[in-house]
Structure formats: structure tokens, C-alpha cells
Amino acid sequence: ILNVEQSPQSLHVQEGDSTNFTCSFPSSNFYALHWYRWETAKSPEALFVMTLNGDEKKKGRISATLNTKEGYSYLYIKGSQPEDSATYLCAFCGDKLIFGTGTRLQVFP
Amino acid sequence: ETGVTQTPRHLVMGMTNKKSLKCEQHLGHNAMYWYKQSAKKPLELMFVYSLEERVENNSVPSRFSPECPNSSHLFLHLHTLQPEDSALYLCASSQDFLYEQYFGPGTRLTVT
């Protein structure tokens, strides 16, 4: 059974705080790891597609790292803003395409 | 035009009804996906089509029947559904299978 796990399930932070969360995935048959952001009442939007061990990607205040050998990826948000409030999903792409349950982030002003 | 559209946005149907969900993408992508999102569960991949051929079917009950007539359109035909099939059904497309996906707004389905 293939599992993709995300932690924590939910996170409440103050505006200006930096935060990070984890996606754990199978370390075999790896092709890519995707991160998506899903705001309430909207569709999921792709943040990053990561394919190589050691990959680091950055988009504004959000960045991600990838370790395929140990099967994890971290997503970092620097200086959180209320508009960062959303559910962040990771998806393992390998012999199966599997989404994690997501980390729900709420940023309070 | 928006990238991926889905119709209808909301659907209420009885267990004996037959209905269809429609997805259309205007991005020139080769792969299309159907997902089911139930409360407090991860997104569940139902079907994947790549170049109009089904490449993945995750043991979905036969009461759900996909159809991909061309690379821009994807349908999900529904018949004799159960109340537990009530969920948000999302369509997505990507340039090719396993590339980053672009999602539609979803269809909120309620089975009574």
C-alpha cells in the first residue's frame, strides 16, 4: 500500500511568522512530486513540480525542497500573510499518482 | 476563456437517475483526469486519459463511466449512484501524464 502523508494536518500562525510543513512519500518508483495550493471556494493551483533529489524551488515567499532517497519534501513560507491561508497538497507521481490529505494553513492578521 | 471548465457546478440526483458531468480544457493538453473529493479524505484519482486512451482506473465502481471523445473533452457518466457518492468531483488536465495539473472548479454532487 502506497501512502502519502502530510504533517501537520492544520496550522495556525500569526501574520509575519515563517512556517513549514512536510510531505512524506514512497522512496521507490519516484517520478515527480507536485505541490498544490487550494484556497477555499477555488480550484487547486500548482506551486511546484520537483523531479530531482536535492531540488529546491522558490516562488516569491514560498519555497520547497526534495529528498527522494528518504522520501520527503518540505514546503516553507517566509513571512506568512493572510492571503497564504489555504490547504497545501502534495502529490506523489510514480507508478501511481497519489495525493496527500493536505496541510490546512490559517494565517491570522 | 478559462483553462478548465466543468458543468454543471452543482447537481442533485436521485439514486435511479442517469446524469453526466462534463469537463473541457482549452490548454492544448494531452492528459485529463477525474478526481473525487469526499469530506476529510484526500483527493482520490478515479480515471486518467492520455491522448484519449485510458491509462489508469483506480478500481472505481462501474456506476461511474468515463468517456473521452477527444483531447479537449472528458465526461463522467453517472447511473444508479449511492448516497456515499455525494462529493466534489474535480477534473484536471496536464500537458502530458504526470505533468503539473490544471484543475477545473468542480461539480458538487449530492445523491438523494
Task: Tell the overall outline of chain A.
Answer: globular
Quote the beta fraction of chain B: over 45%
Largest sheet features of chain B:
7 strands, mixed
| Overall pLDDT level of chain A | 94
Regarding quaternary structure, what we see is: heterodimer
Structural category of chain B: mainly beta
> Kindly, what is the distance between the CA atoms of the first and last residues of chain B, rounded to a whole number of angstroms?
34 Å
Number of strand segments of chain A = 11
Extract low-pLDDT stretches of chain A: none
Poorly predicted segments of chain B: none
Count the DSSP helices of chain B: 0
For the sheet with most strands of chain A, the description reads: 6 strands, mixed
Largest interface in this structure: A-B, 20 and 19 residues
Mean of residue pLDDT values of chain B: 92
Q: Could you state the order of secondary-structure elements of chain A as H and E?
A: EEEEEEEEEEE
Structural account:
The complex is a heterodimer of chains A (109) and B (112). Chain A is an all-beta fold and 109 residues long. Chain A has no helices and 11 strands. Chain A has strands spanning 5-7, 10-14, 19-24, 30-38, 45-50, 56-59, 62-67, 72-77, 86-94, 97-99, 103-108. In chain A, the strands form 2 sheets. In chain A, strands 2, 4, 5, 9, 10 and 11 form a 6-stranded mixed beta sheet that branches. The termini of chain A are far apart. In chain A, 36% of the residues are buried. With 112 residues, chain B is mainly beta. Chain B is 0% helix and 58% strand. Chain B contains no helices and 11 strands. Chain B has strands at 4-7, 10-13, 18-25, 31-37, 44-50, 53-57, 64-70, 73-79, 87-94, 101-103, 107-111. In chain B, the strands form 2 sheets. In chain B, strands 2, 4, 5, 6, 9, 10 and 11 form a 7-stranded mixed beta sheet that branches. In chain B, strands 1-3-8-7 form a 4-stranded antiparallel beta sheet, with no helix packed on it. Chain B starts with a strand and ends with a strand. The interface between A and B is medium-sized, with 20 and 19 residues.
